[in-house]
Write a structure and sequence with these properties.
Layout (H helix, E strand, L loop, with lengths): L10 H13 L6 H8 L3 H13 L3 E3 L5 E3 L1 H30 L2 E8 L2 E8 L14 E3 L4 H8 L3 H8 L6 H10 L2 E4 L6 E9 L5 E10 H4 L3 H21 L2
Antiparallel strand pairs: 1-2, 3-4, 3-8, 4-5, 6-7, 7-8
GO biological process, one term: negative regulation of DNA-templated transcription
GO molecular function: DNA binding; DNA-binding transcription factor activity
Keywords: DNA-binding, Transcription, Transcription regulation
Length: 240
C-alpha cells in the first residue's frame, strides 16, 4: 500500500494506517514491514512499537508483528451499534408477522440481557422489558447463546441448566431453539442466533408468547420467522 493512496494530510496517521494495512495480509517482521510499506526502518519500528503500546498491534510466538486485540474490540463495539440500530425495524417486522412479542438478547457474563424488544400492541404486553437481566440456565435464548460456545464455557453453562447437552446439539443442528414453560409457566418461546462477520454468535432473536397460542411445539409455527429475522440482523452486523 502506498501512502500517497491514502494521504489525509496527517503524516504520522497515514503511516500508522499503512502499517495496519500491511498487517491485514498476515504477520510481518520489521524487515517485512519496511519492504511492504516503503517506510524507513526507524520510522516503521517506532510506529509499530507505538501501535503495540495501544494494543492495535501485538507479536506472535515468532516475534512477528500482527494485528492486535484492540482492533477486535473496536470492531465488536461497532458491530453492537449496527445490531441495535437494525434491531428495532427487524423486531417490529417479526412481531407483526407472528403476532407475538419479539426480543433481542445478548449474553453478559453468566446472565443474558434484553437489549431490544417489540411488544404486542394489545393483550399481554411487556413480557420482557428492555434492560431485563435473565438467567442463562433457562429459555430458548439461553440455549442459543450457549449452544455454540467453546467447550469449557459450554459445559460450565450446562451446570444447573434446565436443558441438556443433547438438547443443545439439536439446537446446533436445526439452527434454532424452543422452550415450553422453562423460564415462566404458561409461556413458550423460539430463538435463533445472530452472528458477526467471524460467524460467532453475538445475540439471540426470540419470539415469546403463551403456550395457549404457541402450542407445545412453538418451533413448528415460529422457527422460520425467527431464523429469517436473525439472518437479517446477522447481515446488518456482518456488513455494516
Amino acid at each position: 500500500m502506498d501512502i500517497s493512496d491514502i494521504s489525509s494530510g496527517v503524516g504520522v496517521l497515514d503511516k500508522a494506517a499503512v502499517i495496519l494495512g500491511a498487517l491485514a495480509s498476515g504477520p510481518a517482521t520489521l524487515a517485512g514491514l519496511v519492504a511492504s510499506t516503503g517506510l524507513a526502518r526507524p520510522t516503521a519500528h517506532r510506529l509499530a512499537l507505538a501501535l503495540e503500546r495501544h494494543r492495535l498491534v501485538t507479536r506472535d510466538l515468532q516475534g512477528r508483528f500482527v494485528l492486535g486485540p484492540r482492533l477486535g474490540e473496536l470492531s465488536a463495539a461497532a458491530g453492537e451499534d449496527c445490531l441495535l440500530a437494525a434491531a428495532g425495524p427487524v423486531l417490529t417486522s417479526l412481531r407483526n408477522a407472528t403476532g407475538e412479542s419479539a426480543q433481542l438478547y445478548r449474553r453478559q457474563g453468566e446472565m443474558r440481557v434484553c437489549v431490544a424488544a417489540a411488544e404486542r400492541t394489545s393483550g399481554l404486553r411487556d413480557i420482557v422489558p428492555v434492560g431485563s437481566t435473565l438467567p442463562m440456565k433457562v429459555g430458548s435464548a439461553a440455549q442459543v447463546l450457549l449452544a455454540w460456545e467453546e467447550p469449557e464455557r459450554f459445559y460450565e453453562g450446562l451446570q444447573g441448566a434446565r436443558f441438556t447437552a443433547t438438547a443443545l446439539s439439536g439446537v446446533r443442528r436445526r439452527g434454532w431453539a424452543q422452550s415450553i414453560g422453562e423460564r415462566e409457566p404458561g409461556m413458550a418461546s423460539v430463538s435463533a442466533p445472530v452472528r458477526d462477520s467471524s460467524h460467532r454468535v453475538v445475540a439471540a432473536v426470540t419470539v415469546t408468547g403463551p403456550i395457549q397460542r404457541l402450542t407445545r411445539h412453538p418451533g413448528a409455527r415460529l422457527a422460520k420467522a425467527a431464523v429469517d429475522a436473525a439472518d437479517r440482523l446477522t447481515e446488518a452486523v456482518s456488513h455494516p
